[in-house]
What does this fold into?
Amino acid sequence: MSSYMSYFGFNMDLAPNGSLNADEASVSADMSYGADEALACEMITQMIGGLKTGNINACMTDFPGTGNITESTADGRVDSEISADEVTAQTVPYITGIASGAAMIQTNNVTYLNADVSSMPASLSEYVINSLIRGEMAYDGIVITAPLNEKAITEYYTPEDAAIYALAAGADILYMPEDFEAAYNGLLAAAADGTLPESRIDASLERIFRVKLAGYVE
It folds into this structure.
């Protein structure tokens, strides 16, 4: 697969999915490696290693996992009532992916009510991105949002607000804003008035350049 992707000019795959399927009806059931943590971690290691053979960057998806989520955030807000400890426990496959060389992590748009006092969807959540990914997991690679055109986002946030919240929370790349131009202009305005410090944007650019210009930028 990595050979085919490389041949056609691709350098990134939105895979593997790190969710552990606690529910067979979960939204990640057809995209992840099941409920067995050890098996999932082994498959993730092999998947990332295989992608590397074709110089394809792996992006772990659906962080911090949707193995117990049965409703789609494409259709509206989805709340999870698992505890903060349970959220942390399901991040093990993602930690394995990082250790195996995953260049990026993509969040989901689920709201973790009992773990995140802000009640923000994961893609806009400082708890998920800054506390979990950057803090507990000490990951300084690229973080990509889930699609920002999903109803879990668009029914509650303007394109401008979603973009600003995501970057303020620590995301580096905004995936599929509802209105790209509005999101872009919103970020420009936020940078101009100091809502988003230039240092926050520079940090994301450094992470992106380390991957896009690997071998040239340290």
Remarks:
- DSSP finds nine helices and six strands in the chain.
